[in-house]
Specification:
With 207 residues, this protein is of the alpha/beta class. Helices cover 50% and strands 17% of the residues. It has two domains: 130 residues, no CATH class; 76 residues.
Length: 207
């Protein structure tokens, strides 16, 4: 009979080889996901965790402009780009990334870490992502919005196809269908805008 031992700390050699990792890679350093989460929470209790929320401007598609285009309005709150959890006290500071475009990473962060690592009001130290080129900034923001929209589309489709019809009204069904169309239309426009910027940058490099 084989007895499995619980690994309460990450493999030291694996840890010291990198200073930045995804949550998926971090989980693989432990015997179970619970051990990994407990390790982060214990490090937090010991004052060895710093959590940062990185933001990026939110771009709104304004159809009333001529020509219609995306605008980052100054009075619109930025969107969350990612969270980073930095664990100190190792040979290198280990930084675990939780990108908003990764639904699994955000699920883990929201369910198991967000409340414990925040300031008690759900807030974190915030920094705007450092992208100086305005075209690159817009492309990065729009790519994130497209990914978030795609995740919402998947969730709505799952809800519509799996929900018992007796528990959803006609109005709810129609609203979900309209949301699907709106999200897909928005992603089509986003993709066209990203392609336009990329083509313009490529032509500029050739000039």
């Amino acid at each position: 009979m084989t007895t499995q031992t619980t690994q309460s700390t990450p493999n030291t050699q694996a840890t010291t080889m990198t200073d930045k990792t995804t949550i998926s890679s971090f989980l693989r350093l432990f015997d179970t996901p619970t051990d990994a989460i407990d390790y982060i929470l214990k490090a937090h209790d010991d004052g060895k965790v710093e959590t940062t929320e990185y933001t990026i401007p939110f771009y709104t598609f304004n159809r009333l402009l001529t020509p219609p285009r995306f605008i980052a309005y100054s009075d619109h709150a930025p969107q969350t780009h990612s969270y980073e959890v930095a664990i100190t006290g190792l040979s290198l500071t280990m930084v675990i990334e939780f990108p908003m475009g990764d639904p699994n990473a955000i699920h883990i962060f929201s369910k198991y870490l967000q409340h414990a690592l925040s300031d008690g009001y759900g807030a974190f130290e915030c920094e705007e992502i450092n992208i100086s080129n305005p075209d690159d900034l817009e492309c990065s923001a729009l790519a994130l919005q497209r990914e978030v929209n795609a995740n919402r589309v998947f969730g709505i489709r799952e809800f519509i196809t799996k929900c018992d019809p007796t528990y959803i009204t006609d109005a709810q069904f129609e609203r979900n269908c309209r949301d699907l169309v709106d999200l897909l239309d928005e992603n089509k426009v986003i993709t066209e805008r990203i392609q336009y910027i990329n083509d313009a940058q490529y032509i500029s490099q050739l000039a």
